[in-house]
Amino acid sequence: MTKQTIYVSASYLKNTNCWRKFFYSNVERIALKTASSHLEAAQNYGQAMGIFLDAYHCGVPYNEAIEPACVWLAARENNLPVGEFRDSAHLRCAAAGYVKEVPYTFFKPAFDKLSNKRRIQGTFEILFWENDYYRIVLCGTIDMVAEYAGIPEVIVDDKTSGARKEQFFWQYEHGIQPMFYSYCEELRNPRGRYLPFLVNAILVKKPTLKAAKEGRGWDGAIYERSTLFEFSQPMMEQFKFWLYGKLDKIKAFCELPDVAKDRFEEDFDLATCYPQGYIQGCPYTALCRLGTAAERAAAIEYLYERGEDSPTIKALKQK
Ligand code: SF4
After folding, report:
1. What is the mean pLDDT of each run of 10 residues along the chain (319 residues)?
2. Range of the domain at 253
């Protein structure tokens, strides 16, 4: 029998605020059939920028680094929705601006001693637990471990977003990903200390004609770095306590007999969770409005499909 792997990444851990959401998203792996095309455009743009950044941070010149990224994005921009600006022409300009802002020497990627490769785009998986039917695996992709501002090793996470600046860094400073990555890095490469984490952001918007007329040139991207997020031993102890609480709950789910697993979905108390999910735009609200498991099963047939794997999970499955 093939075991089902339950991947636990930083973004999937966010779903553990609602176990029903985690169940649908990470165990059943269902997603709404109608994805927002603006969302899709943003995701494609972010992936294309990632292709450029990986090559550029490895020392590939701009002209060579940008071409594969633009080709990749151009192949996906035939049906961009009206008003969508995140296309390959925008990408080219945003990447050119990045090169001016962040010269090659800005980040010095570390070398992995075992593979003797630069530590760029490192997908990791750490087995937490398994039984005969399930594996629980911690996973993620570390964009870069690099020397930055005289600090020998910093985990650098590239983010391409259109989000507003003030809220942008705050969500990471108070989010799960920085601690999760630093914790996993220490598990994989023990140093006796936790590496700090930096967000390297490219915040994109529609370029304005006004800026061009006023001689300010192309203004479709802003380049910003967060402050360094650093983690003391006590902070990480607390994080570990929280993380293992979540993992133990997933493990308990995996150990339930099948009948009880169905009840796990059925019995979930919606009274507290449903309004919160509704406000946050949870993709499963259409299911949670329904009263019975049979109604939900019918709705899943019509409204949902098997979810696409994230780039990290795709990379792990190809290994
Ligand atoms: S709608 Fe509420 S109860 Fe349903 S999955 Fe989303 S957060 Fe959970």
Report:
1. 86 80 83 77 93 94 96 91 91 96 91 83 93 93 95 95 76 90 95 96 90 82 94 95 93 82 62 56 81 84 80 70
2. 105-257
Residue 314 falls inside a structural domain:
no
Q: How far is the CA of 139 from the centre of ligand 1 (A)?
A: 24
Rounded distance from Cα 169 to ligand 1 centre (Å): 26
pTM: 0.87
Residues at CB less than 6 angstroms from ligand 1: 18, 20-21, 270, 273-274, 276-277, 282, 284-285, 288
Q: What is the DSSP code string of 282-309?
A: -TTHHHHTSSSHHHHHHHHHHHEEEPPP
Is there a domain that residue 234 lies in? Answer: yes
**Number of folded domains that form the chain:** 1
Q: Looking at the domain assignment, is residue 243 inside a domain?
A: yes
Which pLDDT tens digit goes with each residue over 76-85? 988 888 888 9
Q: Side chain identity at 87, as an amino acid letter?
A: D
Q: Rounded to whole angstroms, how far apart are CA atoms 145 and 50?
A: 15
pLDDT one-digit tens code per residue, 254-265: 888 877 776 666
Nearest CA to ligand 1 atom 7: 277
Considering the domain boundaries, does residue 115 fall inside one? Answer: yes
CA distances from 8 to 82, 158, 250 (A): 36, 20, 10
Ligand 1 nearest-atom number relative to CA 275? 2
